[in-house]
Amino acid sequence: MTQYEAIIGLEIHAEMLTNSKMFCGCSAAYASAPEPNTYICPVCTGLPGAMPVVNKKAVELATLVGLALNCTINEHNTFARKNYYYPDLPKGYQISQYELPIASKGYLDIDTPSPLAPLPKGEGNDDSLRPAGEGSGMRVTIRRAHIEEDTAKLAHEKNSALVDFNRAGVPLLEIVTEPDMRTVEAALDYATKIRAILRYLGVNTGDMETGVLRFEANISVRPVGSEELRTRTEIKNLNSFRALTRASAYEIERQIKVYENGGIIVQETLGWDDVREVTVSQRGKEDAHDYRYFPEPDLPPLRLDRAWIESIRAQLPELPEAKTQRFVTQFELKEKEARFLTSEKALADYFEGVVSKSKSPAKTVHSWIAGEFMRYINDASMDVKDVPVAPESFAKLIDMITDKTIGASAGKTILTELFTNGGDPAQIVKEKNLAQVSDEGFILEVVTKILNDNPKEVEQYLAGKETILQWMMGQIARTTKGKADPNVARELLLKLLEERRK
Amino acid sequence: MQLHNLTIRAASEMLASKKISSVELTQATLQRAHEVDSKIQAYVTIADDVALEQAKQADERIAKGENITPLTGIPFSMKDAISTRGVRTTCSSKILENYVPQYNATVTDKLADAGAVLIGKTNMDEFGMGSSCENSGLFNTRNPWDLDRVPGGSSGGAAASMSAGLCNFAIGEDTGGSVRMPAGFCNVTGIKPTYGRVSRYGLIALASSFDSIGPMTRDAYDCATVLQYIAGHDPKDSTSYKIQVTNYHENINKPVKGMKLGIPKEYFVAGMEVGVESSIQEAIRTYEKLGMEVHEVSLPHTKYALPVYYLLLFAEASSNLARFDGTRFGLSVSKDAKDVVDIYLQTRHEGFGDEVKRRIMLGAYALSAGYYDAYYLKAQKVRTLLRQDFENAFNSVDVLLAPTCPTTAFKLGEKTSDPLEMYLSDIYVVATNPAGVPGLALPCGFSNNMPVGMQLIGKHLDEQTLFQVGHAYQQVTDWHKQNPGNR
Question: Which pLDDT belongs to residue A283?
Fold first, then answer.
């Protein structure tokens, strides 16, 4: 049977976090609007005679993203009208960018390896931008990033539809890749990294469930070794990573099956049915819109000063990839550990905050953050930036564990206390009498009592069931409320058990 | 005394000296409008309540001596393409017949701030698409000089409201001659300012890259006065110039002796009405007598102006008019509509007139994939050449002089059956709009008892010189003082 490979290109629509809309002064915080159609004005509802004015902040954010994705920022870029009729588009056209976008020709390196056959020569396919190809990972070429405005929201009723214009005109950045990715994993990796970068830059919340980040996948398949680009289909409105991966995987399989059965793929726009988990045709090529793009006459070209672009570049924060590498060298973490910590800027910042206040090794701080800390905030569905425990307090806590003032299980108790009621870790140790006891006499008493109270378990242990030891350690911790130094306790437990064997 | 034929200057002096109040002037104007306009039909809406309220406020300003401008208390008419909060704004289209804007155009606000009094909204060719007002979706306006003739277009109602004495100044809008051509037909002075000099915010767009709001007045001096108050940068219109507005009266009395007048040879070709040509030649001789040097100049790409203008206009208009879809404002026809597309189709079918539909279709075609390069893009390139024509001409002369139309006002119905014939009546006025340069129309004589108009074309943002040269002419001629009542 023929082996196939997928050719995947992604388009990402990211809402940009500005106070006001792209072309008017209305609030862009449509999600928190008190009612439908409250954050509206003549401009964003397309009243006759209203005119757009470019939101400077949105241009700044788009530039920031362009620079983070190693793009060329075009000093001269223009807005264009994309003409089509739909009730969520009040002017009958969307103001977008077409011939001259704000950013073009960039790249993003991802970790997922992807066999990369040379692309056909043509505009936009610049092989010199690609890394040599050795090692793992690959470089995804960004074709362009452009600014546009979001549409209104439709609420479909039984025999009608209602339009809420609160979202109309919210700034969007569309980031388009070349068809560089060859696997669903690579596409997911790319999408995840883009999301992290947008969050790092403060451009987008990354809250996929609210629709602030939407994907479109362009997919075709071809026999491995072939250099042709076959007909592609486009899956629109993928609103989660899950939808992105499921829909792409489904579509790749579907296309392969069609070819295997001697069929052909037709160019069409597809939707993803989340319930039935299939792609469904929305529009064939013959129904494809002719958007009749032309330069927006209401807006002069956007001219960006070189010096201004450089001033935006100076605002670029350390991005996830660079931070990961720094964490690996500076804190001697494994790449995987560092990558976890840098997956979110707030988490990385928190980690660094704790490390800077703590005398303990960074590795210890990592294991507490990756372990207990994450468990707590996940259980509480808490955002890292909302964590009420100051890095100083957490550092103190970890240091008390490191210097054996308290045991690990007392540490967990204190962390919970810090999360729920706050306070000073040392004070909590005192109040709750949680200091670790290494006194052999006290621990010996406890161990002896536990062995006497559980003859059956002792017997099982002596018969060779060594796992029972962990259960006994648990009993000790419970009896002492975690105060017994586990090393001392374990030593004594083993010693007494061996004595009983004799 | 005839109040209705006063210049702004004269009316303002009477108000200042308390010979008359703004309320009295406004009432007289409204009364005349109600009496006379049934014959002329210049107004789509006469806004009695708004007018009287504004007049009252103007009188208060005058009484307190506060914040008085040359426009305070002066009645004016506004082309119905410019948004007026609370006063319906129809663009003379059925699709907007009952549309009442929720906001004011910047020009509306500026005139209100200056204290001017809005009498009403004037008829036009639907969305500005026409040269005779016969394309109004509502009714025809007649030329006050001869009721069987058209007032010109598209600001025909505005020009008629001036020559019939139904206001003391009018606000028109010029996309491809729409102020100058009807000004010429109705013996009115009017300017198309430099593109971007007056904010377009609130002007219902025809062709966004051409549209220029401009005043129509009884003379060049008044024209400068009104432009002074409506020009300037507007943060709500990104295409408006940030450059400060010059004082348009500063040089207005300076002699024009020694200045250079250019006559574009391409504008003097066969087809011009004899009486029009002789009036223009007479005007040129008047300028010679005033000491101006007259030079023939060439605008070599003039023959492309009309196709370039119309092609780009159709393209932009097809997009600008997309918002009239029956879902949010204006006419909405949804009987038997199966889906939203039916609402679009029915509303636009019933709401738009034939000329509007024709232009939307031609424009959409010119922007379509596969045709864009050959039409739209090519036209944009030629547009650059048209602009360069003017730049080159202004290297050797200060202003250009040309007719506003090859003929005087034609009869109603004369050209309606042939759209191309109608388009040709704009041949002298369209080139300035793709080029963006200003043009001042002035009355310059009569041909078969109908007014003849000429235009002075100036450099970018050099309205000052146009007013100076126009004013100099009106100091030695009295064509502009003629009206249907006194001639």
Answer: 81
CATH number at residue A447: 1.10.10.410
Mutating which of B87, B328, B342, B376 best tests the A interface, going by the most A Cβ atoms within 10 A? B328
Q: Strand A213-223 to strand A233-238: parallel, antiparallel, or no bridges (unpaired)?
A: antiparallel
Is the dihedral angle over the CA atoms A230, A236, A239, A243 positive or is it negative? negative
Please indicate, yes or no, whether residues A449 and A425 belong to a single structural domain of this protein: no
Q: Which among A431, A451, A472 is the end of a domain?
A: A431
- Would you state the pLDDT for residue A413? 86
Domain-wise residue ranges, chain B: 3-258+399-481, 303-382
Catalytic hit among B12, B79, B94, B163? B79
**Interface residues of chain B, partner chain A, Cβ below 8 Å:** 82-83, 89, 91, 96, 99, 101-103, 105, 200-205, 207-209, 235-239, 315-316, 318-319, 321-325, 327-329, 340-341, 344, 364, 367-369, 372, 376
- Per the structure, the complete domain to which residue A90 belongs is given by 4-312
Active site residue B178: yes
**What are the beta bridge partners of residue A217?**
A10, A235
Of residues A428 and B433, the one with the higher pLDDT is B433
Considering only residues 13 to 52 of chain A, which have any Cβ-Cβ distance to chain B shorter than 8 Å? 42, 45-52
Query: Which residues of A are less than 8 Å from B201 in CB distance?
Result: 49-51
* Interchain pair B322, A91: CB under 8 A: yes
pTM beyond 0.80: the answer is yes
Cβ contact (<8 Å) for A292 and B319?
A: yes
Rounded to an integer, what distance in angstroms lies between the CA atom of residue A460 and that of residue A440? Answer: 26
Give the DSSP letter string of B132-193.
Answer: SSTT-SS----BTTBTTB---SSSHHHHHHHHTTS-SEEEEEESSSTTHHHHHHHT-EEEEP
B54 closest CA partner among B75, B85, B81: B75
ipTM over 0.90: yes
Residues B270 and B305 sit within 8 Å (Cβ to Cβ) = no
Nearest residue of chain A to residue B318 (CA atoms): A83
- Can you tell me the distance from the alpha carbon of B248 to that of B251, in angstroms, rounded to the nearest whole number? 7
Q: What is the pLDDT of residues B239-263, one digit of tens each?
A: 999 999 999 999 999 999 999 999 9
Rounded CA separation B41/B75 (Å):
18
Do residue A271 and residue A413 come from a single domain? Answer: no
Q: What is the pLDDT of residue A360?
A: 94
**Least confident piece of the model among A88-97, A372-381, B90-99:** A372-381
Residue A87, burial from CB neighbour count under 10 angstroms (0-12, 13-18, 19+): middle
A158 touching B (Cβ < 8 Å)? no
**Tens digit of pLDDT for each residue in A126-151?**
444 444 444 468 899 999 999 999 99
What confidence category does residue A115 fall into, taking pLDDT thresholds of 50, 70 and 90?
low
Omega before B154 cis (within 30°)? yes
Known catalytic residue: B93? Answer: no
CATH class assigned to B3-258+399-481: alpha beta
Q: What is the pLDDT of residues A250-305, one digit of tens each?
A: 999 999 999 999 999 999 999 999 899 999 998 877 677 899 999 999 999 999 99
The DSSP secondary structure of A4-21, one letter per residue, reads EEEEEEEEEEEE---SB-
Bridge partners of residue A186, in order along the sequence: none
Same domain, A276 and A168: yes
Q: Strands A294-295 and A80-83, how do they pair?
A: antiparallel
Q: Write A441-445 long-range contacts (CB < 8 A, 24+).
A: A442/A484, A443/A476, A443/A480, A443/A484, A443/A485, A443/A488, A443/A489, A443/A492, A444/A492
The CA distance from A195 to A197, in Å, is: 5
How confident is the model at residue A125, as a pLDDT?
46
Count of structural domains, chain A: 3
Q: Residue with structure tokens 């690609």?
A: A130
Looking at residue A104, its amino acid is: S
Average pLDDT, stretch B5-25?
97
